[in-house]
Design goal:
mainly alpha; 15 helices; 2 domains; 1% strand; 391 residues; globular; 2 strands
Length: 391
């Protein structure tokens, strides 16, 4: 019993001592946020005609797909009986936000992302099905889905249909990640989560993290291929990252000001949590290193015209810090919201284990897995110019 109560201060009910949601539930909104943000960046070129970000269009789509494939895995590992998750499709419950996620996920994966990628790559897939030999020839042949018409008229139809799907995909991306904030915000019993701004904050933080991730992946893959980085593209992505970050930070400040002004019975408890158990994760990592520093770095590039090499390093540093800050934000929401009792009279600690089902090791594996999938997708469907695709 003493082991269970280790790290507990004050009065807590027995069911409040052990945290119900662990590191895996932190990963889940983090990964889905990267999906939504990457897709929004891709839509800038397809829908909003921002030609400067065109070099990252296909890479952003493949990045979104790679992370979307992994997105449900943290939930599956968290479940005691993961096979029961399929019952949401067999016996749908329309009043359950969590159950409805399954249908949102299938819609986004099967209709939005896969169909858009197929339409965009169809011409290359048909060409590869004719030029490749061996097993890869049959792989690409299967991917054509029996459609090998690549006439100008057929490609125009592909482009129009792809445009419509992208337009539909933008609110779908918001819905995919916004519902996560909705689930937390609808838990009225927890004052850390219960805020109408929670879904909106989650959406904009998803845009920030996804754009930052694509920026890092694009810069890294370009350097690994020993190609020249398109600085016009990088400058444009960084500018949109800065804009989205300003909005996200403003919304979080608005939520903070509202909590301070309201100052209900939970305020002193939340304030104590921020200055003690969550000081490093929230004040140091999320606010200072993950928000203020990257905002200042990105703002400096908008005010001062640094050399290309300097700007590139600033963008990479700001993006990496941003990704760390958004992860810390997810940690503070999920873990921080469970560290105090419902009576506000007690506090507990979260003990992070290593080689357990919900420990650090599977979490690291789940963060690495999307990059391995992305590597495979890039090999199968190269997002680079056509001369490399044929190589």
């Amino acid at each position: 019993m003493q082991e269970v109560l280790h790290g507990v201060e004050g009065f807590m009910y027995p069911d409040e001592v052990e945290l119900q949601w662990s590191l895996l539930i932190v990963l889940y909104p983090y990964i889905t946020g990267l999906v939504a943000g990457a897709f929004i960046l891709a839509s800038l070129e397809r829908v909003f005609k921002v030609e400067a970000v065109k070099p990252t269009y296909r890479l952003a789509l493949l990045t979104a797909l790679a992370f979307l494939i992994v997105a449900p895995l943290p939930l599956q590992l968290h479940l005691g009986h993961p096979e029961r998750s399929f019952e949401m499709y067999l016996t749908p419950h329309r009043t359950s936000a969590m159950a409805m996620f399954g249908f949102v996920y299938l819609w986004y994966l099967m209709v939005v992302l896969l169909l858009e990628i197929w339409l965009d790559y169809r011409k290359e897939i048909v060409a590869l099905s004719k030029s490749k030999t061996g097993i890869m020839k049959w792989v690409y042949k299967a991917m054509t889905l029996g459609s090998d018409n690549v006439s100008p008229g057929a490609l125009r139809v592909d482009d129009r249909v792809g445009y419509v799907i992208t337009v539909i995909g933008i609110p779908s991306a918001f819905l995919l990640h916004g519902y996560v904030g909705f689930i937390f915000g609808s838990v009225k019993a927890n004052p850390w989560w219960s805020s109408p701004l929670m879904p909106i904050v989650f959406i904009f933080s998803a845009m920030v993290s996804g754009i930052a991730a694509v920026l890092v992946i694009y810069a890294a893959t370009t350097l690994l291929r020993k190609e020249q980085v398109d600085m016009r593209c990088l400058d444009t992505i960084a500018r949109y990252l800065f804009y989205a970050f300003v909005i996200d930070f403003s919304l979080e400040l608005l939520d903070l000001v509202h909590r301070i002004y309201e100052a209900d019975e939970s305020f002193h408890t939340l304030d104590f949590m921020v200055h003690t158990r969550l000081y490093v994760s929230q004040i140091v990592i999320q606010i200072f290193l993950g928000t203020i520093v990257p905002l200042l770095l990105l703002a400096a590039t908008q005010l001062v015209r640094f050399q290309e090499a300097v700007r590139r390093r600033i963008y990479l540093a700001a993006s990496v810090l941003t990704l760390a800050g958004i992860f810390a934000m997810r940690w503070n929401v999920v873990i921080g919201g469970q560290l105090f009792s419902k009576s506000f009279l007690g506090y507990t600690n979260y003990k992070l284990e290593f080689a357990t089902r919900e420990g650090l090791l599977p979490a690291i594996a789940l963060l690495i897995l999307p990059f391995l999938i992305l590597w495979g997708l890039v090999k199968l469907l190269p997002p680079w110019p056509s001369k490399e695709a044929a190589a």
